[in-house]
Amino acid sequence: MIDAAEIISAGHGILFVTLDSLRYDVAQDALGSGLTPRLAAHLPGGRWERRQTPGTFTLPAHMAFFSGFLPKLPQPVQPTRLWECRPPAFKTVPAETFLFDAPNLLAGLKAHGYRTLCVGGVTYFSRETPLGSVLPDMFDVDRWRPEFCSPHSDSTRHQVDEALALADACNKQPPFLFVNVSATHVPHGHYLGSSTDTAASQRAALAYADTHLGRLLDGLKQHGTWLVIMCADHGDAYGDDGFNGRGIAHPAVFNVPYAAWVHR
Asked: Which residue range or ranges hold the Sulfatase N-terminal domain (predicted)?
C-alpha cells in the first residue's frame, strides 16, 4: 500500500504520466514482447495492472483524475485511494489517503506548498481553443508546443526534455509534475511507416516512448523520492466489434494500464 498522505506531508515529488489512448492489451503485449524494457524495470512486479477508466476520452478522464478519481480495478473491493477531495462528515477515509480541501487535486496540492507543472501533449492541453485551456488553467505552469503533439514522430523526447527542465528549475517547492504522453494517441501509424492507425502501430509508438520515459525516471532521481503514477486515460478501438475511436462504451476503451510506485 502506498501512503500518499505521508509522501505529500513529507514534501516528496509527484510524477503523474498519462499515456494517452493506450490500450491495456497493447501495453501488455509490448511488455511481454520485450519492447518496453525501461518501463519493465520500474513497474511493480514488472507488470501493468488492468484498470478501468472513469472517462472514455481525454477531457472527462483527466477531469476525473484531477478531481481524485484514478482508474479502478475491475473488482468489487478497491484498494485505498491515493487522494480524495474532503468528503462529507459521515464518510471515513483511510489515513493513507491524501485529503485535499479544495475543488481539485491541483488546488489542494498548491495549498500544501506544491508547485504544479504540466507538460501537455494532445490538443486538450494546447490552449489553441477555449476548451484547450480548461486543463492547463489548473496548473501553476503549463507548457505545450506543436512538437509535443502526436503528429510529431519525436514528441516524447521533446516532452521529456521539457519535463526535466521544469523539475530542475523547481528547487524551493515540491513539484507535482504531470506529463501527457501524446505518442500513443492517433496518429501513430507513422511509427510503422503507414498512414493507418492500428493496435500494432500504437505498440510501436509505446516502444518508441519507452526510452524517453526511462530517461525521465532516471533524471528525476537526483531530486529525491517521488510518488509515480503512470496510466492511460482511455483506450482506442481499431475495428474491435466494428467500433473505432474513443468516447464509446467498449472494453478496448475502458480497459487501461495502470501502475503506481515510490521511486527513489
From this structure: 14-261
